[in-house]
């Protein structure tokens, strides 16, 4: 991609999108890719956008997880990761054998139901069983391999396992850090991270991302647990709508 072909208006739009995406990430610990990738891809090549956001998300995970290392629930992550890897293998196999449209519709409906529960604060105080980590991780890994959007199943599970909003945010970041390592390795193998333009854009966007994370972190401190849960629900609603549109355009 040639930077000279990017108009000033597109640069301003990209800055605004990144600020919004990582402001949300600073509040909740996830959601930056959900916000940024679809919007940036409207005027930038997807092969440029996805590796760029991967690098920024990976850095954000280090910042949030590193600053709140003691708040990460490693026991929750430990059970998710191995089943997530199995899900990735399964998703890669399914990718060449099954039609994607029905699975996208099913996932959109699944996420939508749980999003409404969060927005309306309908779920009770009782924590769900850790046994739900298996289907959550398998689904997250499979969907991630199939569609590049495996976050919602992980978010749904952890949101029903961890009550403290700061612990939840730190655990999201630690989980997505481990996933980011795997994706970075695979992107390096296929050459998606070998572009000079991506690294120039990454270092240019770094201060924007860090500033937005800081502002989001300040807002996070002032949120109640109910507000945090509802914000997560709104992001999941956005995710379900995004999946629905993707299914309609497969």
Q: Could you please describe the fold and organization of this structure?
A:
The protein has about 250 residues and is an all-alpha fold. It has one domain (about 5-250). Helix content is about 80%, strand content about 0%. The protein is built from ten helices and no strands. It is globular, with a radius of gyration of 17 Å. Helix 2 packs antiparallel against helix 3 (about 45-65). The chain has helices spanning about 10-30, 30-40, 45-65, 75-95, 100-120, 135-145, 150-160, 165-190, 195-220, 225-250.
Entry summary:
With 250 residues, this protein is mainly α.
Architecture blueprint of SSEs:
Blueprint: H1 8-28, H2 32-40, H3 46-67, H4 74-95, H5 100-119, H6 133-147, H7 151-159, H8 165-190, H9 196-222, H10 225-248
